Amino acid sequence: MTRVxxxxxxxxxxxxxxxxxxxxxxxxxxLPSPESLQSFLKQVEPGSDAFPLExxxxxxxxxxxxxxxxxxxxxxxxxxxxxRLLDPDFRGARLLPVESAAGGQVGPLEVERAKDLPRxxxxxxxxFSAELPRLIHDLRDVEVAEFLITTIEPDGAADSPxxxxxxxxxxxxxxxxxxxxxxxxxxxEMTWRPSTSSGxxxxxxxxxxxxxxxxxxxxxxxxxxxxxxxxxxEITEAALGRNDSxxxxxxxxxxxxxxxxxxVLTRDSNGHHGVSVGDADGDGxxxxxxxxxAGLPNRLYRNRGDGTFEDITDAxxxxxxxxxxxxxxxxxxxxxxxxxxxxxxTQLLLFIxxxxxxxxxxxxxxxxxxxxxxxxxxxxxxxxxxxxFLDLYVCVYSYxxxxxxxxxxxxxxxxDARNGPPGVLFRNDxxxxxxxxxxxxGLDAGNDxxxxxxxxxxxxxxxWPDLLVANDFGTKNLYRNLGLRDGRVMFEDVAAxxxxxxxxxxxxxxxxxxxxxxxxxxxxxxxWSAPGRRVTSAPAFxxxxxxxxxxxYRRHARGNALFRNLGNGRFEDRTLAAHAxxxxxxxxxxxxxxDNDGWDDLYIVNGMLTRxxxxxxxxxxxxxxxxxxxxxxxxxxxDDAWRAMNQLLIHGSIASHQRNVFLRNDxxxGFxxxxxxxxxxxxxxxxxxxxxxxxxxxxxxLVVMAARQAPQLRVFRNDFEAPHTASLAVxxxxxxxxxxxxxxxxxxxxxxxRPSTSSGxxxxxxxxxxKIVQAGSGFLSQHSKELIIGLGASxxxxxxxxxxxxxxxQTFADVPLNSRVRIVEGSDIRTxxxxxxxxxxxxxxxxxxxASPPAATWMYEPFPAPDFSLRDLSGAPRSLASLRGKPAVxxxxxxxxxxxxAAFDALSRxxxxxxxxxxxxxxxxxxxxxxxxxxRMFAGAxxxxxxxxxxxxxxxxxxxxxxxxxxQDLRLxxxxxxxxxxxxxxxxxxxxxxxxxxxxxxxxxxxxxxRLARAVPFAGAFYSGLPLRNYLPYGRELLDxxxxxxxxxxxxxxxxxxxxxxxxxxxxxxxVRTGRTAPARSAFERALALQPDLAExxxxxxxxxxxxxxxxxxxxRFRAALxxxxxxxxxxxxxxxxxxxxxxxxxxRGLYEKALALQPDxxxxxxxxxxxxxxxxxxxxxxxxxxxxxxRRPDYGxxxxxxxxxxxxxxxxxxAVSLLEGALKRTPAYEEGYVTLAKIYYRAxxxxxxxxxxxxLLQRNPRHAVALELLRQWKKR
Length: 1277
What we know:
By secondary structure, this protein is α+β, with helices and mostly antiparallel strands. Among the domains are: 53-229, Nuclear Transport Factor 2, Chain: A (Roll), CATH 3.10.450.50; 233-402 and 411-608 and 658-718, Methylamine Dehydrogenase, Chain H (7 Propeller); 726-833, Immunoglobulin-like; 856-1005, Glutaredoxin. It is built from 37 helices and 56 strands. The strands form 13 sheets. Strands 3, 4, 5, 6, 7, 8 and 9 form a seven-stranded mixed β-sheet that branches. The protein has a six-stranded mixed β-sheet with strand order 48-56-55-51-52-53. A hairpin with an 8-residue loop joins strand 11 and strand 12 (287-290). The longest helix is centred in the N-terminal third of the chain and has 21 residues, at 53-73. The chain is globular. Mean pLDDT is 91; it is low at 1-24, 197-209, 401-407 and 753-764.
């Protein structure tokens, strides 16, 4: 974090206190937040910042939760809640239409869309109370009643000025009275007002969260879908449950796993791990490959052909332990079997298949033209140059979002970030090597974004595959393949010119032909956010931004995008017209035709982090997005807001409990949400899904990957069945083209039968279905290469055409309906009948998730335990140092926790065995014995007991937070096994087994391979070198809690392990905070020697030079920082300061003004500009700037001090005194304020009060030289 240089510098240290949580087995220290983040963390509560209506949203959402709870409880409670919800002056309209339009009915699914909803406010509260029961009359049990406020604005027409108007999206799902499952979705327009004349709701008891009541209520839209029978049946347990790896590994959620892994093995996992489908063993059946975080082996499950899968990971040799995002099955060498390409965090891996599902890794198969600049996120393959071999595009991302604090730079500006790492295109040379051709093919254009997903397809029909890239925080890339140009294939980014820029949080990319016109359309996954829609529409959101920029931010929260291919090289945005935007935080967003009616539907898996506690999505939009600078600039409040967000998300939730979305294609250019009716509205943080035909019956079944909850992988069998619905299953093999036929287009022309909306009798309609074979689409997903082509109520296939990737075309007539088709390029067609459809009434088989992660963890790399020196209960001195030279065990426990006392008893009983084995032991209690008798009893125990001092308690609490990835609080009891130099080598949770400890102590010294094998719970192999432990986050938390000496040791370890420029810069910045300016300066200089353009290091080094009086050197460093990043507010402000001191007032003024133009919310620059005007005698403007600085940061002591001096100069000493007294209450650590206040009192002849102020200062700092000198002088007089 960059530092801001001011005319006076000071630092306040927040002392940490700790408290035992109400759950007595968890010790949760109350760790104060870093000072730089506190102003943001104070804004977590909605309504406390520039968006006051968000407080109203929270209160109104409380009322809507009451309604939701009541609806799920039954009609009696619902009626009572409605009665409390409606205002006495209520007026409303009917919620159901007089007439509905059929959205279509095929087989067991019926969809109705409201045509004209009543708008007349004819119903009073009593009459309206029957409307909600009437709306859900077809529901027997309500399982989901979700209400989301998407817009809010003051209601100027309401009787109360505090009234608000809202748009509320509702989604009500449950078991039907006659149907199997029913879903109602739509929007209500509601006007609310508080129940008091004061303009704020009265506090009420019980479930009523506030006194808000509804004054007006009308319906804006309504769609109902009814499934007469179960459509998707979960078969997870039947399909996978017999595998030990599924139960013991995939049956445990990632947060639980992250709490058991040595943090050196894995980075924080946001759950970005996908699932891929392919035929690993060549038996014609699709198998599953499941990606996992570091430390857990990826899993390969073989399809046994009977609806079950068996784990063949170990036999296949693909138990990769590296952090894996995605895999692709692809025949990269055209030998007829499926090889495996993996995208791990730091490298690509190629495994060659011998044809029998035995894989061999090929070392150095991928040759980067320059070092990788980020983390690999996803991959997609196609034969871009049509040489017959599959090539690979790799998306690369810079993570800054999540629990870890060692993040890359933040995306800026948020809506159009261009500071992402470049993606990479690899060309397959046909000899087992993939060569980076990114620059030579033109793909370096626009290649500076945060790439999440890619998909290949020939959208313009010229025979050359084009590339769609979905980027977070900005626009998409559509790279049109220009074909051969001067002997090489070139691409051009045409996203802007063809109309698919699509500003948004791009997370998924897909091609489909949703309107069956034979042209490939585009569907991208973005972010649909109710808080985002509200905040970006508020007047207080970026008031200084242009209308166009504000509109792009609103677009950022609007959701997914659907672009229709016009056939003339351009696309039109049909998102809103087609009702295709809803996906929530949409990850894999891709097409499948679940009902085989021939029209591609859309499925979206979504959600981010679901944990206990309140969701932080609103805070994210209010305090992070809203602070984005107009252009990239380091060291802004926006950066600190991201850090605050990351700290909250260590254990917090964002975009939580989001339910997957299924949009059914109505065949007329639109979509209807039917997620709940289909049973696919999973409340799970999903990332990926893949389609395959598990049971061979010619429809698309689903596997869904949502690793953040258990089970991580779920399987759903498609049991949709409608009379006379036909399909084809087409599998291709290339000869001249790549063997997998990736990029092939299959066009089926049919004599299709569509039910007439007038007569109900089927009428013949010509139809065409277009499908493409892909390897990678959506997000982290690979669907089956067998194309399932729905034919609806067709009677005959007129023609089936294959357009091969190499350029050839084959046509086949009269292909049998409901057949499995196999075509080899250049050969005849082979067909066989599909299997009989699965029984729709087969019972579901939901996975049982009863497994738990291991109770003990070996560390791969020892973690130094904090030293201590305490006296035990008998009075004898004890220290960690005294245990060195042999293994030792440290028990962290509590006298008041039964399990901890049991652990201590077990340790005491085994003291003799520990002594014989040469293992030392000590028990550290986090609390005191209850009474003197207990103290005497434990003082005589065989294991010495020390009571931790506050510093020791804090030290060990922080240690245990950093042993594992997700910062778990200290569980009591926890037992640490230490090596001979006091490094933690194993952690035992909740229990003590002395025999196990003795055995483990004898095995501490082991070679690296053995240490690694025991540090992970399952067998596998790492293919990337393991990093050394990152001590930066650990050191930072020690420093934040005032443990300075330990923090510096941690920082120095970090620099030894990773002496890169970034680490050295961070070390220097943190050494500054401890007051060690000489080593800090050395660290900055070493960082700049490695990376001369590291602007932050130049800026902070300049600060140190200025403080040391070397203004010339400081000016040079500030100018160097600005040469690297011209729009760097901190450096502009600091250079202004240095120039001000050297008499260059005019240039300093220009720098301050530029800094404020870039970052209007910059109190330091406002303060310094005030000082500049004060020096020139312009007290009016000086006062204005000081007040502005204080307004933006009320606890800014220096600005208060300077404003007080201006007030004194105006003769307003009483106002100055009042200002300073208030400032010192808010910021008691600001010592200069005491001196100024004392001087004002003294000059006013109020000597006793002046002396009292100085004495207050000396109580805080007895050695304050100025205070001591002033007291000496004044007392003499």
